[in-house]
Structures are given as structure tokens and as C-alpha cells.
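FAQ
Q: What does a multi-component entry look like?
A: The components come first, one per line:
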Amino acid sequence: MSDKLVFICKTSDLEPGTVKRVEIGDSGVAVYNIEGTYYVTDDRCTHGLSSLSEGELMGDEIECSMHFGAFHVPTGKPTLAPCSIALKTYRVETKGEDVFAEMD
Ligand code: FES
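Then the predicted structure of the entire assembly, as C-alpha cells:
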């Protein structure tokens, strides 16, 4: 296992189709369960200060609750204005019931 892998949550913490914020150090990431696959991105919207985990997960896109821009969760690519800067994504590894992300 890589030294950079950080425990994020238990698989049972997140129902399919949901997202939640997890505090890592002094910042937060958003962890998503999309049809049983887990993804981790920065929680802060690249357009402003909003927390994406408070937005709405629609399929594999997260809609920001502040100005309703959106991102493709698996790639972090912006899919709807006013979001134009890609969201940072993290490689995820699931080991048994534990979800880890490779952090910088
Ligand atoms: S802060 Fe997210 S769309 Fe503006």
C-alpha cells in the first residue's frame, strides 16, 4: 500500500448516489458513491467557496449549490458554467470495507 494513501471512510458510510465531506488535515475532500464506485475530489468548488458535498449528485456529475455550475466527478472536468476550472480528483483504492485516496 502506498504511503500516500489516506483513509477516507467506510464503504457503508455512503449509500449509492450520495456524497459527503471528509476532513483531511486542514482541508476537506468530497467522497462520492456512484453506483458502488467511490470517487474523491476536493470539496471546494473551483468557482467559489462553496462546498460541493452540499450540492446535488446527479449521475456522475456534482452540481454546486451556490451558482449551479457542475463537474464530472470521475475526471473533475467542469461540465456547466460558471465552473470553468477543473476540480482536483484523487485516485481511490478500496480495500475490503475501507476507502482510501492517494493524497499529495
Ligand atoms: S461557487 Fe460553485 S458554481 Fe459558483
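Q: Is there any commentary attached?
A: Sometimes. For this entry: The chain has one domain: 5-102.
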